[in-house]
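name: query_chain
kind: protein
chains: 1
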Amino acid sequence: MKVDASNPLWRFRGITSTAMFFFAYLYLPIVVLIALSFNENRLATIWTGFTMDWYVTALSNDDMLRAAQNSIVIAVSATVLATIAATLAAMGMSRGRFKGESGVSAMLVLPLLVPEIVTAIATLLFFVALGIKLGLLTVIIAHTVFCIPFAYLPIRARLEGMDPALVEAANDLYANEWKAFRRVTLPLLWPGILSGAMLSFIISLDDFVISYFVGGAGATTLPIYIFGMIRIGITPEVNAVSAMMLIVSILFVSISFLIDRIRY
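structure:
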């Protein structure tokens, strides 16, 4: 195959079909899952007709609703705590260079690089060593630590794009540090904070591995509940629950992306 070096990659012969195959492989199973969630037949893979009954069944399932409530409580708590910690960390890192800055930056994003199973096992051992009883609290703590990098990166990126002269001008006008933050920094920073918070929320809501390891009795989250359902066979009810989680995830990620694009 002759390759013209002056052409960009997308002009290479076969790159279009390769990209189409990649996206089909990635997203076609999701489309099939959503379609089968409307299947009238209890056997999920045999289509017999269209129905919304499985969504009604899923939303009427008390155990599933209890698991969803746990997931929301955990996600909201972890999001608030992680966003506060990430905002403080981003503000501290933006004050100027200091000794060990690169090491601190690496530590802040380390949970993104470490395999989640390693984080889950390490967190479990940490709680066991301290004698902390596993439950909703341990899941919230673990999710908070895991979500901090997801909240930190959009906030840090927003801070780097801010003009430091704005805060200096506020100080010249006799505004103290808190008033300068509240009147100048925060209004410009809120899209990054909100974007990071929404990412943290959806990461916590969808998490399975960490929740599975550090959650005790009464701390069953929605992903764990879905895992328990598929162990006895995949039904349209499982597909319906998964489709609803997918829609929520897409909605939050899309809103986060749009908010992050807001200009000053």
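note: Residues 62-93 form the longest helix (32 residues).
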